[in-house]
Write a structure and sequence with these properties.
Blueprint lengths: L1 H11 L8 E3 L2 E3 L4 E4 L3 E6 L2 E2 L1 E3 L2 E3 L4 E3 L5 E3 L7 E6 L10 E5 L2 E4 L5 E2 L19 E2 L3 E2 L7 E5 L5 E3 L17 E2 L4 E3 L6 E4 L4 E4 L9 E9 L8 E2 L1
Antiparallel strand pairs: 1-2, 3-4, 4-5, 6-7, 8-9, 10-11, 10-22, 11-12, 13-23, 14-15, 15-16, 16-17, 18-19, 19-22, 20-21, 20-22
The structure holds 2-acetamido-2-deoxy-beta-D-glucopyranose.
2-acetamido-2-deoxy-beta-D-glucopyranose binds next to loops.
Length: 233
C-alpha cells in the first residue's frame, strides 16, 4: 500500500520540521502532524488529519480501521448521493455543494434543470430541482427516458450527457470513479480534484495534466429525497 508507506516515511522524516510539541521522544509541528497514543505521528494532508490504524496512518474517507487494526476499503456508496467540495484550508469552497449545469459541474447552489410542463400526466412540481444526484459510478438520477451519464473528459472536466443524446467528448472516460459510503469520491491513481475559474468548474487531477486552480477533495453525501429533476441541462 504505497500511500500508507509514504505517509509513514513522512512521519519519520519530521525531525527537521519546526518543532513545537513533543510526541513520545519526537518533537513535531502540530500544523503538520497529529500525535496518537502519545508516541505515534500521522501527517496532516491538505488540512485533514490522517488517523492511526495499527502501525499505519490512513485517510478515513477511503479506509476503515478494523477491530484487528488492519485497514479495509470503505464500502462503496450504493445509495444515491450528492457531491460536496472539501478543503479545510479554503474557507470559501469548503463544504460547498457541487451541481451540474451546461453539461459540466461547478461549485454552485443549484443545478440547471428542465421539466417539460404539459406532457400528459407529468407533474413537474414533484421535482425539487435542488441537487445534482449521482447513482453508482456513471449515472445521474434523472427521470428523462434514456437517462443521463457522467464521465471525465480528456481535459479532466467532470461532464454529463445531454438528455436524449449519448454524445460526449472523444476520449472521455466512464466509470473510472469510486464513491465511498460516508466517504470520498475519487478517481484511483489521481491526486484529487480542482475548482477552476470564476465559476469554480470541477476538474479531475488526471496524471499528466497541470492546473493552477484550487485543489480539493470531493466527499459523498447520501441523498434520501428521491430523484430531484426530470433532466439536468
Ligand atoms: C431539496 O428538496 C427536498 C424536497 O423538497 C427537501 O426535502 C430537501 O430538504 C431539499 N434539500 C436541499 C439541500 O435543498
Amino acid at each position: 500500500m504505497t500511500l500508507l508507506n509514504s505517509l509513514l516515511l513522512g512521519a519519520c522524516a519530521i525531525g527537521a520540521a519546526v518543532a513545537q510539541l513533543q510526541c513520545g521522544t519526537i518533537e513535531y509541528n502540530p500544523a503538520l502532524y497529529s500525535c496518537y497514543d502519545g508516541d505515534f505521528l500521522c501527517p496532516i494532508i491538505s488540512g485533514d488529519a490522517t488517523k492511526k490504524c495499527g502501525d499505519a496512518c490512513y485517510d478515513a474517507d477511503i479506509y476503515d480501521c478494523k477491530a484487528d487494526s488492519t485497514l479495509a476499503e470503505k464500502p462503496a456508496e450504493d445509495n444515491p448521493f450528492t457531491l460536496i467540495a472539501h478543503n479545510p484550508l479554503y474557507y470559501g469552497i469548503n463544504g460547498k455543494v457541487i451541481n451540474g449545469c451546461s453539461r459540466h459541474f461547478f461549485l454552485r447552489d443549484l443545478p440547471c434543470a428542465y421539466c417539460p410542463e404539459g406532457i400528459g400526466g407529468l407533474d413537474c412540481s414533484m421535482f425539487s430541482e435542488n441537487a445534482t444526484v449521482l447513482g453508482g459510478i456513471s449515472g445521474l438520477m434523472t427521470t428523462v427516458p434514456g437517462g443521463q451519464l457522467f464521465y471525465i473528459e480528456p481535459n479532466g472536466a467532470l461532464g454529463f450527457t445531454q438528455a436524449h443524446s449519448g454524445s460526449y467528448p472523444t476520449g472521455s472516460t466512464f466509470g473510472s470513479v469510486k464513491a465511498y459510503e460516508d466517504g470520498e469520491f475519487i478517481i484511483p491513481g489521481t491526486s484529487g480534484w480542482y475548482a477552476c475559474g470564476d465559476d469554480n468548474q470541477i476538474f479531475a487531477a488526471l496524471p499528466g495534466l497541470e492546473f493552477s486552480c484550487i485543489p480539493l477533495r470531493i466527499l459523498t453525501a447520501e441523498w434520501p429525497y428521491g430523484t430531484p429533476v426530470w433532466q439536468y441541462t
